[in-house]
Amino acid sequence: MEHRNDNETAEGTERKPSWIKVRLPNGREFWDVKQLVEGKHLFTVCEEAHCPNRYECWNQGTATFMIAGERCTRACAYCAVKTAKPFPLDPEEPQHVADAVVHMKLRHAVITMVTRDDLPDGAAAHFAQVIRAVRKASPSTIIEVLASDLNEKPSSIRTLMAARPHIFGHNLETVERLTPIVRFRAQYQRSLRVLRMALDCVDGKVSTKSGIMLGLGETEDELFRSMDDLLEHGVTVLTLGQYLRPSRNHLPVVKYIHPDDFVRYEEVARAKGFRHVASGPLVRSSYHAANFTPEADVLEAINEDLRKAGEL
User: What pathway annotation does it carry (predicted)?
Assistant: First the structure.
């Protein structure tokens, strides 16, 4: 199905406002990261999801790894990641990701995943293996994960959280009213419960994070309600960014949010109680993720639990 709106030109490309500017690759670091990713047969959400910041991040020598393959079992109307029958999990992927983290000297690694509804555990055990491999190779690296909803299976969430990521992220993506349109087979309330379950699995000893795209037709009241919902479920880190249409086969942009409004939304979110907020037209879940560091007591609690388990 093709979607058209008033922002679209006759050629099918959307007219973007002046504040939507994407940097092009121009540094050695960009090509170093590209060579490393391709050499290790890794996937990044930077490329698979057509992230507008990929050139900037790669020029800075950072990337967000996407594990469990490049094929997703869901077909969300906003997402550029390929939907198809997935390939089997790569048993060498955990070590490849760990090697890349060491090579890039990452102090903060962000790892996300495709949704794997074809697997009983949603690839939770595989994700846990990746986390443990990264920690073994680079013990001082902050590990941030951006997980699927894992079909809200308590056993899968426990498996993932047992590997003790420092930051657990799961994106709400949009407001409740728009969720059935934007997120295929996802549920707004389920996502909130998953965030709370991840927190409760480790007795609150993790920072939880979520992101919302703007410009899909949400109202400000709906956005503020979603902020409240996230806070009520223990989320302390929030990202807000402009939805950008990956292709003509995806949902159109209803509105381009002005940068001044993003500043205002950040102020509202902070006033409501979020500990860290990143808000701007090109902000994505992992954009400048290293600017946030979990609370010292959370880090120490995680390290203490890992020492007791003999994993640190």
Answer: Protein modification; protein lipoylation via endogenous pathway; protein N(6)-(lipoyl)lysine from octanoyl-[acyl-carrier-protein]: step 2/2
